[in-house]
Design brief:
alpha/beta; seven-stranded mixed sheet; 8 helices; 12 strands
């Protein structure tokens, strides 16, 4: 595989200055409000990842009224927002937390922290010491209906139990892909690239291709946690790779 940094340089890009978006999806389903992941929490990840509480307030969303949070996987930028900085208290104590059983079991099994790479042990220790103390987890399997019209789609590779969520309403479908195709500018033209955050590189690549091919075949819109603003768009085939077109806001 071509060296990633060299390929980025040829494209006029650098690893040091590429902005990474972080989007939390909210779904209003009947009288229920469902979130997908909870972001990184203020002051717990990147310095610019601070706007979720203010944006929720501006949108009139009361965090105490959120019914369900669908958790895609246990990486810090997706779940640190479930915990208060310093105390680890629940930010959304009234919400049911739904996650792929494989993800929860992998991260919380005895001895997992010691098996992690050094750079991931602090995160693993926080997860293993906090999440099992909460009673509002619901562990589900691939294909489970996790909210009305929403089903879990197993998308392992990025993490062992990483999940996407398929939202359907009438004839319309939206694939909430989370970290399957995390930065389209990089991975649409190079879906074979392996990311440093993928825990099983070959599986992540295979999952990426399978999910994007499904989205294209079924003419779905797709959103992702790190897609460029406004966070959603469509993919098309481009030879053995893909092109991505963000939606245009009217």
């Amino acid at each position: 595989m071509e060296d990633t940094k060299a390929a980025l340089a040829k494209a006029g890009l650098t690893t040091e200055f590429m902005p990474i978006a972080l989007t939390v999806v909210g779904l209003k389903i009947g009288d229920r409000f469902v979130m997908v992941d909870a972001g990184s929490g203020v002051g717990q990840w990147q310095a610019n990842a601070t706007k979720l509480p203010a944006n929720m307030n501006a949108a009139g969303i009361d965090r105490t009224k959120i019914d369900t949070i669908l958790v895609s996987h246990f990486h810090p930028d997706h779940v640190w927002g479930l915990m208060e900085r310093g105390t680890n208290a629940e930010v959304f104590p009234n919400a049911e937390l739904i996650v792929n059983r494989a993800e929860y079991v992998w991260w919380t099994e005895p001895g997992r922290v010691e098996k992690l790479a050094e750079g991931r042990r602090a995160a693993g220790k926080r997860i293993a010491s906090v999440f099992p103390t909460w009673s509002n987890w619901k562990l589900v399997e691939d294909g489970a209906e996790v909210a009305p019209g929403v089903r879990l789609v197993a998308a392992a590779g990025h993490t062992p139990g990483h999940s996407a969520f398929l939202v359907a309403s009438g004839n319309e479908q939206l694939m909430v892909s989370n970290d399957t195709m995390y930065v389209p500018a990089l991975l649409a033209p190079h879906p074979e690239w392996e990311g440093g955050y993928d825990q099983n590189d070959p599986m992540a690549v295979a999952t990426r291709r399978a999910l994007i091919d499904r989205v294209i075949a079924d003419k779905m819109m797709i959103c992702g946690a790190h897609f460029p603003f406004p966070g959603a768009g469509v993919f098309a085939k481009d030879g053995n790779a893909y092109s991505f077109t963000p939606i245009v806001q009217s």
